[in-house]
Structure formats: C-alpha cells, structure tokens
Amino acid sequence: MKVLVIGSGGREHALAWKLAQSPKVGSVYVAPGNAGTDAGPRVRNIAITDLDALAEFAVAEEVVLTVVGPEAALAAGAVDTFRARGLRVFGPTRAAARLESSKAFAKAFMQRHGIPTADWAAFDDAAAAHAHIDAGAVPVVVKADGLAAGKGVIVATTRDEAHGAVDAMLGGGQAGGRIVVEAFLAGEEASFIVVAAGGRALPLATSQDHKRIGDGDTGPNTGGMGACSPAPIVTPQVHARVMREIVAPTLAGLESEGLPYGGFLYVGLMIDGHGAPKVVEFNCRLGDPETQPILMRLKGDLFDLLMQASAAEATDTTSSIDSIEPDWDHRVALGVVMAAANYPGEPRRGDAIGGLPAEADDLMVFHAGTARRGDGIVTAGGRVLCVTALGDSTGAAQQRAYGAVDAIRFDGAQFRRDIGSRAIGS
Fold it and tell me: Which of 233, 249, 334 is nearest to 289 (CA)?
C-alpha cells in the first residue's frame, strides 16, 4: 500500500521513516521532503506542494493514507481538500485547526470550556496593548496570533521588553495584525500529544521540548532545539489530570461547536509545583522535535495505528482508538537539534554537511533543513538535523546522541549541550 506524508521537516522524516517500517506499506511519498526522506529504500520525495495537485497525485497513485505534517498545510485546508476527493487523510480540518492557527481563538475556546490556561487579552491596536501591559504585572508573554513556526512568542521580563514585542508584532511583523498578551506561568513545561479520533483520544509517550537557542534556556525562542521522552514531570497523577481536565473537555468542546477533531493534538503544558497542569498552547499536529524521540520509542506499527484512527473520520463514527495500548521501548529517547548559522534569524544555506553516521538500532539522524547538491548534502533551512538516540537512562541517551553530534560537521553549526538535563535533575 502507498502512503503520502506532506511536509519537509524533521517531523516528516520521522513519520516517513516509521511508516515505511510497516510490512503493509510498499511506498511512502514525501511532499516535498528533504535530503533524508529521499534516502530510504521505500521512501521517495515528490516535488509537489500545491494541495490540489497533491490530492490529484494521491488519487492517481491510489494512496491509501495521507498524513499532514506541518501546521501551515493544515491551516491552508489540506484535510478539507483531500476529503473532498474521497481520500483518507489524517489531520484536523481547517476550521478545527484554528486551535493552533489563531492563539486568540484557542484562548477564547479554553475560556468557554473551562480549560485551565493563563489569563489573557487579545489586541489589534498597539496603544491598547501598551496600556494593558502598563497596568499589569511582569513577566508577561506576548504571542503572535497566527502561525510563526514556533518563534512568535516573547517572554518579556520587563515592561520595556514587552512594549518592544508589541511594536514588533503589531508593526507588520509575525502576528498579522493581532496579538495575545497573557500572564506568565511559572513551572516546568512538557509536551503531551494524543491521537484523536471520533471524540476519543490515545495518549502517546510524553516528551519535553527545549525551545530557547542557548544552554540553560537562554536566548530567543526557536522552533525547538531538542527533546527527550519520557518527561519525568508528567507523573501518572499529572497524566490523569491532563486527560481529564484538558484533553477530554477540549475534544468535547470542539464537538459541541461543530468542529469534530481528528488528528494529532499537541498540548503544550506548564506544570506548577503542585502538579497542576495548564495549557500554554495547542498545536494541531505532532511537535518537532518531539516527534523524533517519540517515534524512536514506538515499537508498534504506526501505519496500523493511523489507519484505525482515520477510520472514524472516514465513516463519521465513534472511535475505539482509546482502547489501543501501544508498545513503547523502555529506553529514554533524546534528540539534539543541530541548527544552521544565524538561526533563529535568517539561516545561512548551502554549507556542506559531513560526518553523518549510519542508522543504528539506537541512533537515527532525522533531516529537516537539508538538500542534495551533487553527491553531497548541504544545509537548506534553520533547523538542519535532529540527532536522536536511545539509552537505558537519560544520561546514556545523551552520551550516545552527543557522540554522534560531535562527529557531524558543517560550518556555523549551533546546538545545545544540555538537552535532557532537566530530566536528569528530576
């Protein structure tokens, strides 16, 4: 059978890699893919990015399942386009994906349904936003309302910094004319991702992202500089609360508003010292780089799982997805992102990449911003690689991953040295 993965990042490489392991899958197409997704024996890139043309390709090739990777494609209505042609596709509709594509929509939704999150206000007028900041406490968080590739968030520790963020975002910047200003939440972050279908949810292995560019969580936010799984902060008690207080009312609320949700649902959590979780953000797809460690730990058949999940959406029936018990590797998985020079600003492209290790049972290098040039591979984006390893402990996974990182070479490479340190300190 044939599968299509839409996207070009590390998340999509991991999805294609895992889907291709299913004995039921003969070919995995990745559109448009990267240098890593074009290297597998059953995986190949297709140079199509237009959604209508992709849907026609899926019809012509008799693709049995399409998985939409990135948020931009979901916001553009990829799922709606494929369903209109009778194709099975895994992901939320454009309307349901507003949970990610509009921060203001998500915050108002959470307020309507009693889902715990930070206090907030939305603004499209800079003067009103400045007045709100002057009247409130700091730190404060300023967010672009629309999609910003994980970088449209400023945690402002001073009012001057907050005012600067407002001016940048409402002056033609990332927000597209609207911002959300919300109270700062103290605690430890974690990523909680579920497979949602027919009003039910199957939680995947927990993980923890590292957003800032520098060691010790310093510097500007990025799309993510590394992740590890599991996240010790998500205890069984916290896990139960997230499912009860956040995931269940979110899916029920969407259903009640005529937005039935199918696809991956990512809940970015802040967990306080008492174990109380609050929502920092929703994403309507797998996280990147969390996907890489999570799928390294998944021992079962991802294709079977997603076919079962998408069946409810295809037939408009209640799902039994929550009765599935995936088999997870007991080991810790840890991924270190290697980013290009100048990231998270405008990344430098075209630097030759050397020293890439061979795939092993406990090591995989997932490509993101890479391209082929002649017989070689070069940088072609901000986050270039995610070097992902398994180990019997977080420390062992760290050692394995960083051993590979140190052997990989490209000019201007940036990476953090402390991915997983919070888990070790737990």
Answer: 334
